[in-house]
Amino acid sequence: MSHEDYSLYIHIPWCVKKCPYCDFNSHEKRDDYDEDAYVNALIKDLNTESPKVKHRTLKSIFIGGGTPSLFSANSVDRILCAVNQQLNIASDIEITLEANPGTAEADKFSAFRQIGINRLSIGVQSFNDQHLTKLGRIHDSQQAHRAIKMAQDAGFQRINLDLMFGLPEQTIEQAVGDVNTALSYQTGHLSHYQLTLEKNTLFHKYPPVLPHDELIWDMQTACQQQISRQLEQYEVSAYAAQQQQSQHNINYWQFGDYIGIGAGAHGKLTNNSGQITRSWKLKQPRDFMKHAGTGTAIGGENTVIANELPFEYMMNTLRLKSGFSLEQFSNRTGLNASIIQPTLTRLLNKELLQLNQSSYTCTEQGWNFLNNTLEYFLPTE
Fold it and tell me: Where are the CATH 3.20.20.70 domain residues in the chain?
C-alpha cells in the first residue's frame, strides 16, 4: 500500500457465547443486542471518521468481532452502502468478513457474496470435537466442515481458516491432523497460532492444563513443516498461496493507517505533518450506540511520540517475513533512518537480523525469539 492508502475496520461486538480464551471486545448476545440500532450507530460513526480520510483511497475493509456473521446480509449491506457513499474506494478493494461455523447458513454466505464481501475468515480453531468443547466453541467439527464447503459453494475464492495449537491435552499428531484437514480444502490462506492465556479471560482466571513448552515447540515445528508443503509463511502466524495474503492485515503489519468504527474499534492516522495519532471508541455496545456520531463516542486517543515510533514500527513490520527497508521506515514514521542505524548494526552483529539487498529481515534466531529482538528498539530514558 502507498502512504496515502488506508484500511477500515468495522467491529461487530456480539457473539452467541463468549469463548473462555478470548480477550477481544466481544459480548454475549443479550438484552443490548439491537442489530438495526447498531447499524445506525456505525453509520453515524462513519460520518465522523470519513472527513479525516477525504482525499485518500480505501484499500481494504475488515468486518470483525465478536461474530459478524450473526448479522443479516441486509444489515451488512447497509453498512457497505454507507462506506461506498462516503469513502473513495479502490477498484480492487478487499472486503473480509469473519464467520463462526456455528452461525453459518448457506443462504447467508451466498447473500454476503452478492453484496460485495469477497473474503471470508472462518474461525474453525480445531476439527477435533474434544478440543472444540474444551475451547468453549459453539460449533462442532461437522459444522466446521459444512461452513467451509458452503463458503466455497457460494463462490468465495479467498477464504482464511483460523486454527489454534497448544490446546489442552492436544498431541502433535492431533495438531498436525488439524493442519492437514485444513489444507485439504485448499482455501489459500491459513492462520495458525498458539493458544495463550490472556488477562481478563476465563482461561486466565481458571487456567487449563496446557502441553509443556517443549511439546508445543515440537508441535509448532511439525505443523509448519506440513503447512510449508502447500502455503508460504509470510507473517508470524499467517500462511498463504500466491496472491492470497490478507491485504488488510499486511497494512497493519506495514504500519499503515486505518480508521475504525464500532464499539471499541481502534484507528491510527498520520496527518500532513507526519504526526501519528491512535484513537479508540467506547468499548461497551450500549455506550457506543448512545454516543455514536458525537465526540463523546471517542474512548481515548494519544499521539505517538517520536522516541516510541521505532519500537511501534518494528513490533509490526518484523512480524513479516519480508521485513522492511530504511525507506519504508522513514515513509511510515517520518523519522530519519539514521536514528535506528546503530541498533540495526548491533542486531546484525548478534545475527538476529540480516540484510537482503535493501531489506532487513529476522534471521531464524531473531524470528524464533522475536520479543527479544524487539526489545532492542524500546525507547531509552
Answer: 5-252
